[in-house]
Write a structure and sequence with these properties.
With 288 residues, the protein is of the alpha+beta class. The protein is built from ten helices and four strands; from the N terminus they run H-E-H-E-E-E-H-H-H-H-H-H-H-H.
Length: 288
């Protein structure tokens, strides 16, 4: 009984395989037919291409040429640098068959592979004189203004070439560097305390004058910025982070590293206003 059941299973499998084989044979045959049809189409397209002729109205052809000339003009005007180009009177000579298209005169331009009897061809001359568009001034791109050079320490009265050289060797090259220094820093390099205090005071006064005119920045605020914030220019202030700068100044006041009047209060809004005013000032200076 078991052998009979196995035989029936094998017969079913054989039948399934024969059906699948027939389907594959039909698909292969169809693919072969499609390949033949594809070759026929390729041959037909090649024949059509050999005899292809472009028919165009004269006005359409001229407009196409004019459009290309206008593109050249627009491209030149968009350049940042001045661009000079000259297009003289344009003369185009075509060999074409004069024919009709929808009751209108048309030009039949033969393709390379097409053979047309010479007596059917006409010489078409097209002359165009370019008319310049209204002059459009190309405004030069604004160039960034050079930042003012830091003032050397020698501009401070009493600091000559020799002392200036000593200060430079210690990293104190500019008025801003000196304004951020302490009296102890200068005493440590051999300058007496009185002179050191005088030099630093003058440097801080010169640096604090940099902030004159900024909204909300009075003499006390300028002193805070220079001494505690180590900021010596509007550009540096404009690049500062409001919260970070406020924390630095507030800590300096609380730790009494900077002298302020009794009851003096500093808020984050004050610092934001100073920075915003500095940013506007720097932007206006750069664009003017």
């Amino acid at each position: 009984m078991s052998d009979l059941s196995n035989l029936e299973d094998l017969q079913k499998m054989l039948k399934t395989l024969r059906e699948e084989n027939e389907m594959l044979r039909q698909r292969v045959a169809r693919i072969a037919e499609l390949e033949k049809e594809n070759e026929v189409l390729k041959s037909r397209i090649a024949e059509i291409s050999k005899g292809f002729t472009l028919t165009v109205e004269p006005a359409t052809l001229i407009k196409a040429i004019q459009s290309d000339l206008l593109k050249v003009d627009e491209f030149a005007l968009k350049q940042e640098r001045s661009t000079t180009y000259v297009v003289s009177d344009l003369n185009i000579q075509l060999k074409a068959v004069v024919t009709q298209k929808d009751d209108r005169v048309a030009l039949a331009l033969p393709s390379r592979g097409e053979e047309i009897r010479p007596e059917l061809l006409s010489t078409i001359n097209i002359s165009m004189k370019p008319i310049p568009l209204p002059y459009r001034e190309v405004k030069p791109q604004p160039q960034p203004q050079p930042q003012p050079k830091p003032r050397p320490v020698e501009v401070i009265e009493g600091i000559g070439t020799k002392l200036g050289s000593i200060l430079r060797d210690k990293g104190l090259r500019t008025v801003g560097d000196l304004a951020r220094a302490s009296t102890k820093d200068l005493v440590a390099i051999g300058i007496d305390e009185k002179s050191a205090s005088k030099f630093i005071g003058m440097a801080r006064l010169m640096t604090m004058s940099e902030f004159a005119g900024l909204e909300g920045v009075d003499e006390q605020a300028a002193e805070l910025l220079v001494i505690a914030g180590k900021i010596d220019s509007r550009e540096m202030l404009a690049k500062s982070d409001p919260q970070e700068l406020f924390n630095i100044l507030d800590n300096a006041i609380k730790e009494r590293r900077v002298k302020v009047p009794r009851g003096y209060r500093l808020s984050i809004d004050d610092v934001k206003r100073w920075i915003e005013s500095a940013r506007k000032s720097v932007t206006i200076t750069s664009s003017s």
